[in-house]
């Protein structure tokens, strides 16, 4: 019977054939901890899976999850989280931009009484152009303000989570970067520590502008979930109430035109606005009721996984 590891290192992989042996050597240097490395092959088209099989044959601490296609980083992380056995779960990039040598820094902060510790690549943008630094700073500021969890570097994959924190976190879209916000919503204590950032040695980055757009759209979803997931009627009800007020104001103005000024209001937009806001109010009220029923159904039924596994090894 295998000993339960202290650390579960979750590594999403997409076309990282040349980086994997180097990453494994760095993981082997973590001799002070019992660990497992859950390598999630996210539909790689190069020889990544072959390299992983070779590593797994030689070391049972290396565990493979081979997904049927490229689902994206969030789904790959979700697969790794679902199969992690360690007390502490640490996602880390396969491209060596995150250094496993920084893991003790995260663990030391966890031992100070925190549940989530996020890496902060403090010097990442010092030598980059302003056109790249400003969007990153703006995005982190916006996410911090929207979620209420202030972090300097939401995009850093290197984080440490206590296992129990991840049990109730459901991931989809590009939601993996918002886990600290979801965890804080559930009462977790969140902190961050400065970690290193290293240039990619092999391969090319999988980041592009479309991912930035998806992140911004997911941020809207996160804001709604954190604020109204268990009470959607509070959200839709406010909009419905505002619509009813606008409808009432339009009606009173029409009444004023007709009976005080003795002027025709037919040529004004007031009748249309009265009817429009009334209809909108009813629609948002009904949407709130439907959302309430869907929320109840969500909490009473098990959710479908966002990934499909082709094969595993050493799990």
Automatic annotation (TrEMBL):
Gene Ontology biological process terms from the UniProt entry: lipopolysaccharide biosynthetic process
Transferase in keyword set: yes
Domain Glycosyltransferase 2-like: 8-169
Tagged with keyword Acetylation: no
Keywords: Cell membrane, Glycosyltransferase, Lipopolysaccharide biosynthesis, Membrane, Transferase, Transmembrane, Transmembrane helix
Top-rank lineage group of the source organism: Bacteria
Residue intervals passing through the bilayer: 235-257, 269-291
GO molecular function per UniProt: undecaprenyl-phosphate 4-deoxy-4-formamido-L-arabinose transferase activity
InterPro entries: Glyco_trans_2-like, Glycosyltransferase_2, Nucleotide-diphossugar_trans
A GO cellular-component term linked to this record: plasma membrane
Protein name stated in the entry: Glycosyl transferase
Protein source organism: Candidatus Komeilibacteria bacterium RIFCSPLOWO2_01_FULL_52_15
Lineage, broadest ranks: Bacteria, Candidatus Komeiliibacteriota
């Amino acid at each position: 019977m295998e000993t339960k590891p202290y650390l579960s290192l979750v590594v999403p992989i997409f076309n990282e054939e040349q980086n994997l042996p180097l990453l494994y050597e760095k993981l082997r240097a973590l001799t002070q901890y019992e660990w497992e490395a859950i390598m999630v092959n996210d539909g790689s088209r190069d020889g990544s899976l072959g390299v992983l099989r070779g590593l797994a044959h030689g070391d049972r601490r290396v565990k493979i999850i081979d997904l049927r296609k490229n689902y994206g980083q969030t789904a790959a992380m979700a697969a790794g989280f679902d199969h992690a056995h360690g007390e502490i779960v640490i996602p880390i990039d396969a491209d060596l931009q995150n250094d496993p040598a920084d893991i003790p820094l995260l663990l030391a902060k966890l031992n100070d009484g925190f549940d989530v510790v996020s890496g902060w690549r403090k010097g990442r943008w010092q030598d980059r152009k302003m056109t790249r630094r400003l969007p990153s700073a703006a995005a982190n500021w916006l996410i911090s303000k929207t979620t209420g969890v202030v972090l300097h570097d939401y995009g850093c994959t290197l984080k440490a989570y206590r296992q129990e924190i991840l049990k109730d976190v459901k991931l989809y879209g590009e939601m993996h970067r918002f886990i600290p916000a979801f965890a804080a919503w559930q009462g977790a204590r969140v902190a961050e520590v400065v970690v290193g950032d290293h240039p990619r040695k092999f391969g090319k980055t999988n980041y592009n502008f479309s991912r930035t757009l998806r992140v911004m759209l997911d941020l809207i979803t996160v804001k709604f979930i954190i604020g109204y997931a268990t009470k959607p009627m509070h959200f839709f009800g406010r909009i419905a109430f505002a619509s009813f007020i606008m409808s009432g104001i339009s009606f009173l103005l029409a009444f004023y035109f007709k009976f005080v000024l003795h002027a025709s209001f037919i040529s004004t937009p007031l009748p249309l606005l009265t009817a429009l806001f009334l209809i909108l109010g009813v629609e948002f009220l009904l949407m709130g009721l439907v959302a309430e029923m869907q929320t109840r159904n969500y909490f009473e039924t098990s959710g479908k996984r966002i990934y499909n596994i082709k094969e595993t090894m050493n799990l």
